[in-house]
Each structure stands twice: as C-alpha cells, then as structure tokens.
Amino acid sequence: MFEASDALLLARIQFAFTVSFHFIFPAFSIGLASYLAVLEGLWLKTGKQVYLDLFKYWLKIFAMAFAMGVVSGIVMSYQFGTNWSVFSDKAGSVIGPLMAYEVLTAFFLEAGFLGVMLFGMNKVGKKLHFTATLMVAVGTFISAFWILSANSWMQTPTGYEIGANGQFLPGESWFDIVFNPSFPYRLVHTVIAAYLTTAFVVGGVGAWHLLKDKTNQHARKMFSMAMWMAALVAPVQIFAGDMHGLNTLEHQPTKVMAMEGHYESHSDGAPFYLFGIPNDKTQKLDYAVGIPKLSSLILKHDLDAPLAGLDTVPDADQPPVFPVFWAFRIMVAIGTCMMLLGFWSLFARWRGTIYDWPLLHRAAIVMGPSGFVAVIAGWVTTEVGRQPFTVYGLLRTAQSASPLDAPAVAASLLAFVLVYFAVFGAGVWYILKLMQKPPHTGEKGVKSTEKGPVRAAGITPGPSQNPGDPSVLPEDHKEATDGR
Prior knowledge:
Layout: H1 7-46, H2 49-82, H3 85-119, H4 126-155, E1 160-162, E2 168-170, H5 174-178, H6 183-212, H7 217-251, H8 253-260, E3 272-279, E4 284-291, H9 294-300, H10 321-351, H11 358-367, H12 370-386, E5 389-391, E6 395-396, H13 406-436
Antiparallel strand pairs: 1-2, 3-4, 5-6
Helix pairs in contact: 1-2, 1-4, 1-6, 1-12, 1-13, 2-3, 2-7, 2-13, 3-4, 4-6, 6-7, 6-11, 6-12, 7-8, 7-10, 8-10, 8-12, 10-11, 10-12
C-alpha cells in the first residue's frame, strides 16, 4: 500500500502530527501553572474564598493537561532515534545536552513539587504549598527555556565546530549555543503566546458560565482576570512578534520571503500581501491583494527600502511557500483579534457592562480555542519556513532521515494517529467536561483515594477498628483523606 510513498515525507508528516498534538498541551500548562500561582498568591494575600475555589477548579484541569503533555512529549524523543537517526548522529552532541538539561532542571523540579501541589494543600503549610505551586510554574518555564534553546540553535546555529566525521561539536562556550541569535526573541514570543492561550481559555470558560448565570462570582472573577490579560498582554505580544520578525529577517531572510509571499525582489518598496495563492511552480503569487510598500515599512521602517525575493534563492533552498504564507497570516489575524477583544473588554469595563454584555461573552467563547490555533500556526511558520534544512543552512532534512522504507514509517504513523485520537481525544473530552461544570464555593480540587497513594512494595495497612489508632481520623479531619 505504501511502497510507492516517500519515506522522508511520511517521517516529516509523523513528526508534524506528534509535535502538533504535543505542543497544545505545554502551551496551555505553561500559562495555567502561572495562573494557578497567581490565584493561590491572591488567596494567601486577601483571604478571599473565591481565589481558593478557582485555584482548585483549574488545578484539576491542569493535572490532566500536564499529564497529557508529558506523555505526548516522550514519543517525540523516540523519533529522533527511529526516523531521524542521522540528525541525532550529526547534531546529538549539541542537541542532546540541551534536552538533558531540561530533564535535570525542569523535570526534576516539577517531579519534586507536583505531588505537593496537587495533593498537599491540607498536608503541608500554606507557605510550603504556595512554594510548591511556584516551583511547578518555574519548572514549566525552564522546560520551555531549554526546548526553545535547542530549537533556536537549529534555526540560527552558533558556537559549534565541525568534527572530522562531520558532526556538530560544542565550541569553546556553551553560552553561544544556548543564547544563539534567535533564542531570546523566540523564548519571549512563545512564552507570551502560552500565557495568552491560557488567558483566552479561562476567559472563554468564564464567559460560558456568565451566559448561564451572570451572577456567578467565580465566573465573573475568572472572566475579568482573563480580559485584563488580553487587554494588556496581546499588544505586547504583537510588539514581541514584530521584533522576532526583524530578527528572522536578519538571520533567516528566506523564511521571511516565504512569509511575505515575495517571489520577486522589490527595489523601491515591497508590498504587504493580505491574500494570495502561492505558486511555487510559476514562482508567482496568484490573485495577490496587497498594500503597496507596507512590507518595507514593517521590515525596514522605510517605505522605499528594497527587499530581496525568492528569485535570489536557488529553487533547492526555498521552503514551500503556501503553508508558511498562510500560517503566518492566520497567526497574525488571531493575534489582532485577541488585541481587539481585549480593547472591547476595556470599553465594556469602562461602561460597567463587562458582566452583562452577552455579545462580548459570545465573542470570548469563540476566541477561547484561538490560542491553540495561533501557536500551531506559529510553529508551522517557524518549522516549515526553515526547510529544506534541519540545521539551517548546514544540514538538509533529506540528509537527516533514517534509512527506513516507507511501509515501516507508514505503519508507525497510522499507529500514532489511531492511538493519539483515542487517548488524547478522551483526555480532551474529559477536560471539556470539567470546564462545563460551573465553579462554586467549596471546590474540592484534585481527589486522592481514601487510602492514599498505592504502595509499590510492602503491605498496605487497612483501616483499624481501634479508636486509638492514628489511622482512624476524627470527623473534622476527613477532608485530609478525600482531597478537600
């Protein structure tokens, strides 16, 4: 069935499929971990029950999203050895340590404090539990730090040496590898995107419950906090994206040509194309609709600044323009809508109708999943725009794949599709069911079993009938065993 297929294409589809599934969970959990830290901090500072209730409400959702993010990420690591073994051999001396640093810092930090965060609110002091929540939030950021550093090195490789066998080896300073030219911009842009993704999910859930009951104080609080985030951070994200684009123009100009749809060079100001159908065969943008000279103004801050096009790049070094061109526009359009919704909420807040404007709430519900679409579109722009290289300008994707036959890659791809949609589809369905329930006073948070965690060895003691046995808890301490 797949003997006539291209093994390289199937390997690329498989990695794109798994990374797209994986990326939506960290994009949510990074922002949600910080949101939980804010909620718990506000509860400790103000003593208001609403913050504690919202903390427990979103803690259950975070636990599910975090678990699915970890599981889906493990699969990607295996693909480096199965489908991309040549890349692992060539770049493993640089990429391997960066990924190991993630494990040694972020994973260890999260593993040490996640259990306390999920189950320890009634077992440790308030300050220690808040510390655990902060450490989990910091751990998610550190994880993003190392992964984005590794990816950014593949985009803008620096600090390396080429060994006798053609391998990329670390140079004199790891600082040049970790803090490569595109890394600071990509880190800021991606982390802010994660925060906005979470904000719009929280805002969408809050708006959903406000439409059902506009007097729900918990829904009011979460919607208000989310809209503040949208109004204040979305404009910052647009600025960060612009700075990231200017950095990309400097170090990866071919990617920017594909993003802009510039097949032809422009000597006296390049237009910004709003719409068009890229045609790689004819090297033209069909049915183009653009604003004259706007691209030069955005990229060079000069209406008449010349911009080179793909006609200056050999065909073999050009990325596929269609997905890059449209993914970039989807990302920009969603970012603009986020900012506009944030400004709309400010207007509603000024009028005193932020909790009584159904049209605003419906718009927030529609925008609820928009962050996930935006981060996937941004990832497509970044990764497809880097093609045909895995290490930009140095190692081609065609030279990075394992010597596998197409049927072998196709079999694992089909298995991933079936398993992912079954397992993660069920997980997403459960998260949506949790979101469907309105937050209320006395949220229980993550539940544990009555007997506590399952023991890996030894005998699990049963409940004693002796009233003096410490395993028999008095009535006012039962909430310590049922997770409340």
